[in-house]
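Archive maintenance. Older records in this collection stored only the sequence; we are now back-filling the structure field for every entry so that each record is complete. The fields below show one back-filled record exactly as it appears after the update. Entries are processed alphabetically, and Cdc25 phosphatase Ibp1 is next in the queue.

ARCHIVE ENTRY
Title: Cdc25 phosphatase Ibp1
Organism field: Coemansia guatemalensis
Length field: 141
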Amino acid sequence: MGDFISATELAKLVRDTKKKPGTDYLIVDVRDEDYKVGHIPGAVNIPSHDIPLRAGELIDKYSHVPQVVFHCALSQQRGPKSARIYKEVVQRRLQVSNANDPLAKQSIQVLKKGFVGWADTFLVKEPELIEGFDRESWDAL
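Back-filled structure field:
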């Protein structure tokens, strides 16, 4: 999985009030319990261990979304692996679909440096870009 997006680039989407999560873009947070410590606004939480079973469900629900971004804590293992699995399922679906399938144009990316990089970038200067932030639990991680 080689397509990465920076926190700054993704933040432009999240800040854009004309763009809606789940319609114009989708952020898939594949962390487990640490999702509850804080997350990107509009992110959908599907733990990485569930992605192999739920990729088809994601595709069914969000095939119309042009941009899908996966991330975990650091986006070194779980995020990229989840994006790869999702992309493989998309490719299998495209083999049996028609040429006008919106999935053919869907961009699948991974957030560089994951949620840790996102929090490092925005926690102080734009805390509204982190929902449900729990400082005590964050410091305990």
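Update note: The chain has one domain: 4-133. The mean pLDDT is 94.
Entry marked complete.
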